[in-house]
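Please predict the structure of the following assembly.
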Amino acid sequence: MPGPLDGIRVLELTQIIAGPMCGVMLSDLGADVVKIESPQGDGTRVIGQFAPNESKGFHVFNRGKRGIVLNLQSEDGRAVVYRLIRDFDVFLINARPGVAERLGIDYETLSTHNRRLIYLENTAFGPEGPSADRAGADIIAQAYSGLMVGDGKMDDQGNPTLITATTPADFGAAFNGATAVCAALFHRERTGRGQLIETSLLGAALTLQNYIASRQPVSDSMLVQPSRDAMQEVRERGGSYRELLEARSGLRAITGAAYLLYYGGYQTADGAIMLGCVTPPNRQQVRRALGLTEADDATDAPGFNPLSPDSAAIVHHAQRNIAERFRSNTTAHWMARLDAAGAPASQVNTPEDILDDPQVQAIGAPLDLEHPLTGPETMIGPTIRMSDSPLEAQGPSPGFDGDTDQVLREHGYRDEEITALRASGAIGIEEER
Amino acid sequence: MPGPLDGIKVLELAQIIAGPFCGTALADLGAEVVKLESPEGDASRRISQIAPGESKAFHGLNRGKRGITIDLSTAQGQSVAHRLIPHFDVFVTNVRPGVAERIAMDYDTLVQLRSDLIYLEVTGYGNRGPSAHRAGSDVVVQAYSGLLAGDQKVDRNGAPEPITASAPSDYVAALGGAMGVCAALFHRQRTGEGQRISTTLLGAGLALQTPWAGDVPVSDSILIEPLRRMMSEMREAGASYGELIEARRSRPNQGKAFRIYYAGYPVKDGAIILGALTPQNREQIRKALSIVNDPTDDDDFNAIGPEADAIVARVEEQIRSKLAGGTMDEWIARLDAAGAPASPVNWLEDMADDPQVVAMEMMPVIEHSLTGPERQVGPLVRMSKTETGTDRASPPLDSDTDDVLREHGFRDDEIAGLRAAGIVGSGTDD
């Protein structure tokens, strides 16, 4: 059973994470993905290199693709794209606004060569607006969008810290781009028309903050406006980032404190456990598992008012009792009890060990691949299952310039044309000239 | 211009974030989404309520839908839902494994009623395996998947901290599910076949760790294997979580030099973030900040050598003291002029008015019938031929039950009977 995008051809000119990951997802869905690289190669190839132009980052963000090298600075190189694009359904690009136009591979130009083309452009800030031309990266979108402040963490020197070792805006944009490509394919199947799709890291970072960033005047007048006012005062007297964060968290810290008792982490005798309660019944399950009574924790008792002056003491009392309870025994002991109570909780696993986890294996996430240059490797494969058109990883990442000749040949280039293009530097990497 | 999923009908039985946000993403793409709630309603209606059953969270995660209320714990309620199913292309649910079977809303039952149904289930851990039946929520799966430990943050009690105020596994599972649904619609258009799609918070947590959770032996033998050995020895010696994280954080790590130009620094009036990915980016930053004597991009710099930590710390201090002397506007102007990736650390409360957000129309105004106008994060994707987005707010509980049932062949007296018996409706009208 082939994947749902079986037979769909994708040409991508992307690098680092957001664009390449979108290509991986389309490949997992069954599309034939060809990656264009410049003669310098995708920047990820040299981040943590362990063989020439081969890195773990490049391997995981480019599995399942074939790789060709084109010099788009040369007219001959661009002509290759124009000839190839007629045979492709989808084009992916992540470059700053204006770069595609300069290289002559913008939507207007490419769609004259293929009227049915679906063209996905991912940028940092979107193609228009005052920040459109600024350089971007995931961390920039985290900072710009408010995601970082929402997390509110600082290191011991008062520096704002990254919210996570991963890159949520990149992944959000990649997933949404792949969703839109599939929707556009469906639309094209019904109407015959292709189109331009635009996503941005900023949009992805905002999406991750859905209701946190939204403005709801009734709700905000109670919960958000007081902290905006407090922040404004700090700003006016020239306060630091630390003071601004403290002002912002004032009221929120009080109203959210009871909730965070059961939506947060605790140390155990030999590790740590994370609780993820979202409803009062969840919290009751945890209390049952820990053997806590209303005397130990009154935060869900009738009459508890998070806005009343004595609430902080009640929350603090509960926090101490929960923390003490967890510290008194092992992770395994408490997890068995929490599971038996049906409470949402987990031991804190480490990324280095996660592929050995039986549940991770049960959902079929680990993917074993054989890279032609660097040998066997295991990575995260597709984690979405489809019963009639299953997702399936198509293979390892391409070698640098690994498939240029073959792809051109499949699309009608004669061997002598390929040799001439290579000699002129329009295709292929520099070492081979 | 209607959206790409124009005419597609989605029935959603979901609550909190992952399932509902998938429904919103499909609504943004033009699908007609009907949200099916129990008489108590989606639990997110009661997270910081602003009116009975209305909350900012529910509004944000459920815009663009119509709402119906059916008591699926009764056989009659199930038969009402079963009568609706033949009219729907897609069914989205995030109930725990086993619940759908108990209320007769599982794939095998529903596919009997509509043979080309596309059925999406979002679960915490998947529908098989030792953890399948465990309760899951975003932060729990952050912990389970390794995301939390990978972030390496510990609070003052030595406990792990959630990585973000957002719920990344929930949102990514939702987007992955929407992708699966769109791909399945394309597949159905070509073959006539529907199918069952499964997506998990655990899978989303793993996907977010694509670059780290993989196992590439050649690369790992240098960097990861020593770490795994060290952690395993420490665990056997009874080390605490805080000690394990500290050891993990301070290990020799090629990434330390990278991190000084991919990090945040305080400035006079707030903070800025540098986001350099390439040596060129780092050079742009050095130019903008006049940083001298930084060997970390030299060919002979050994990132895991014995001197590396001291060199990195020295350069970091140089950047830090330089930045502390200026304001956000001053530094961002210089960094922008050099073409370097950098941003002020913005306050999310201000984002709706940010000129870039306004220029891209990323946060449109939506009018809610009960609570008035609100600014929401709109669709992240723009499409040139098929408009995305919605001007419909989230549904009040039970707001469209009668209309939807009527549209799908229920007579008024039937609806009145079901309502009187408490099978449909939220019970407040009884």
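The longest strand of chain A covers residues 32-37. DSSP finds 19 helices and 14 strands in chain A.
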